[in-house]
Amino acid sequence: MNDARAIGLASVGDAEVIARLQVDFAVEFDTPTPTYEQLLPRFRALLGHPSAFVLLSGPPADPTGYAVVTLRPTVYCEGPLAVLDELYVVPALRDGGIGTSLLQRAVDEVIARGGGEMHINVDEIDVDARRFYERHGFVNIEPGTDYRMLCYLRELDDRS
Fold first, then answer.
1. Which residues, other chains included, contact 3 with Cβ-Cβ below 8 Å and sequence gap of 6+?
2. How far apart are CA 54 and CA 88, in angstroms?
3. CA distance 35 to 68
4. Spatial separation of the C-alpha atoms in residues 94 and 55, rounded to whole Å
5. Is 130 left (phi over 0), alpha (psi -120 to 50) or beta?
6. Dihedral of CA 16/34/52/9: which sign?
7. Distance between CA atoms of residues 108 and 121, nearest Å
């Protein structure tokens, strides 16, 4: 995969480079993330599990981007519901089609695995990401409604 836009499925052996990319992503956007040492075993476990996959763009040793997708059963469609947990492209290579290639391959992979729907959580203030996903057919207003969908979360490590 010498082409920066060539996309391949990652294996457990790619966990180190994916963990590094995850840390780079968090540092760039100044968002909290687990440490590399915490991420490494998590990515190894994720990559070894059939309910998830990671895509890498570019050469495996020095990827240009990645996408993390998890799948879960749902009552709303026959196949699994997919969540695009992360999509990141190295800053110097943005606007070259890598993100589009990663997203399209992620959608194709979900379809190949029988998936019926994909969710993406985006911060409201991240206008560029919202525009990117909307350009690719994702919506935050469910067909037949006139109100936005919201995602709520609660971290469960503090059970107080």
1. 58
2. 11
3. 17
4. 17
5. alpha
6. negative
7. 19
Nearest to 110 by CA among 88, 85, 143: 85
Closest CA to 21 of 95, 106, 51, 29: 29
User: Rounded to an integer, what distance in angstroms lies between the CA atom of residue 94 and that of residue 5?
Assistant: 11
> Do 44 and 22 meet the contact criterion of CB atoms below 8 Å apart?
no
What pLDDT, on the 0 to 100 scale, is given for residue 1?
40
- Specify burial of residue 112 (Cβ count, 10 A radius: 0-12, 13-18, 19+): exposed
Count the neighbouring beta carbons within 10 Å of the beta carbon of residue 6.
17
Helices (H) and strands (E) in the chain, counts: 4, 5
Residue 88: partners with Cβ closer than 8 Å, 6 or more residues away: 21, 22, 24, 25, 65, 66, 67
| pTM, entire model | 0.91
Residues 6+ apart with CB under 8 A from 44: 12, 15
**Residues of the chain where predicted confidence (pLDDT) is lower than 70:** 1-2, 158-160
